[in-house]
């Protein structure tokens, strides 16, 4: 009973609702983890269905987070599920992991993996890591009770980033289900303060001959230093609340841009230029200097966030997005 109560109070964040995330989430929910967060900004495609077990073909085109949580609720409605419908980046990762006790990396690319690792180092969160390459699976736990981190195991990130994702190399769904469930097992052991947590040990599983091997690795203080240095430069917040957005757009000399479709704009808008997101690449920026303020909006905040990121990538640091879209604004909306 004491152990089940600990699980009920645990707060676990799973980043990625793919081949590893689905079986991990299923096991965590069945085990009674009281607070389960899920972060992913992806949509379900038909190619996902065979190995991503929380989805079915009628779900194609819907957000993974929404469908996954609905499926989990139907199996265990007595838990608290927290949806984070976005892709992680340097601006949101620290605040995201801060609210949880344990983080699970169920992503499939090393760019995201290093970002998650570095955030867990900064916020001192244990990180359960799983990876798949065809029929082979890897499992370990980073940053647990001062244990080694991802950068201690893989010291050359540029080489690891060259590894193909599951979508490119293929993934055996038996392996994804086994490793995903084993990731949940590590979460439970951490939550219950059990011994034999896979920290400092990398487990390799080969599905075809069902063999497992373990490799030990040690901590490298320089690796943690790299993780801390990543967040020394804190970028300006890219998403603005409705109040901050309204106040900012009342200034003179700003560029307010609607990135929705013409059909959406005809229903309602709050003024500004109309540049649909697909046409933003052709937007002529020659008349704007690097200090120009751009304020993007759309219906839900997803497209406007993409637009703001595109301009920041071009060197315009004062590009912002209206968080959650124009429905959050308590101001007069123009109808046409």
UniProtKB/TrEMBL annotation:
Residues 250-332 form the Rhodanese domain. Signal peptide: none annotated. GO terms for cellular component: cytosol. GO terms for molecular function: nucleotidyltransferase activity; sulfotransferase activity; thiosulfate-cyanide sulfurtransferase activity; ubiquitin-like modifier activating enzyme activity. Keywords: Nucleotidyltransferase, Transferase. Pfam families: Rhodanese (PF00581), ThiF (PF00899). This is Adenylyltransferase and sulfurtransferase. It comes from Pedobacter steynii.
């Amino acid at each position: 009973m004491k152990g089940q109560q600990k699980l009920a109070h645990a707060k676990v964040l799973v980043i990625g609702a793919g081949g590893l995330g689905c079986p991990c989430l299923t096991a965590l929910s069945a085990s009674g983890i009281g607070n389960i967060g899920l972060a992913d900004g992806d949509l379900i495609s038909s190619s996902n269905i065979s190995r991503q077990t929380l989805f079915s073909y009628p779900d194609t085109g819907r957000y993974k987070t929404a469908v996954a949580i609905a499926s989990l609720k139907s199996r265990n409605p007595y838990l608290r599920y927290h949806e984070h419908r976005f892709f992680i980046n340097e601006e949101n990762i620290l605040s995201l992991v801060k609210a949880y006790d344990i983080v699970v990396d169920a992503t499939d690319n090393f760019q995201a993996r290093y970002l998650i690792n570095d955030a867990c180092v900064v916020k001192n969160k244990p990180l359960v890591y799983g990876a798949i390459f065809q029929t082979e699976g890897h499992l370990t736990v980073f940053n647990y009770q001062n244990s080694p981190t991802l950068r201690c195991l893989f010291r050359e990130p540029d080489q690891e980033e060259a590894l193909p994702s599951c979508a490119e190399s293929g993934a055996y769904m038996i392996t994804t289900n086994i490793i995903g469930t084993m990731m949940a097992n590590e979460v439970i052991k951490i939550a219950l303060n059990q011994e034999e947590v896979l920290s400092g040990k990398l487990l390799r599983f080969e599905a075809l001959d069902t063999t497992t091997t373990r490799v030990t690795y040690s901590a490298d203080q320089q690796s943690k230093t790299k993780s801390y240095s990543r967040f020394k430069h804190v970028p300006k917040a890219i998403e603005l609340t409705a109040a901050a957005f309204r106040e900012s757009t009342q200034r003179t000399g700003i560029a307010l841009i609607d990135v929705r479709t013409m059909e959406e704009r005809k229903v309602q808008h709050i003024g500004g230029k109309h540049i649909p997101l697909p046409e933003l690449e052709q937007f002529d920026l020659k008349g704007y200097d690097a200090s120009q303020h751009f304020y993007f909006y759309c219906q839900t905040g997803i497209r406007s966030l993409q637009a703001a990121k595109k301009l920041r990538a071009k060197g315009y640091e004062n590009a912002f997005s209206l968080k959650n879209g124009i429905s959050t604004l308590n101001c007069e909306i123009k109808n046409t």
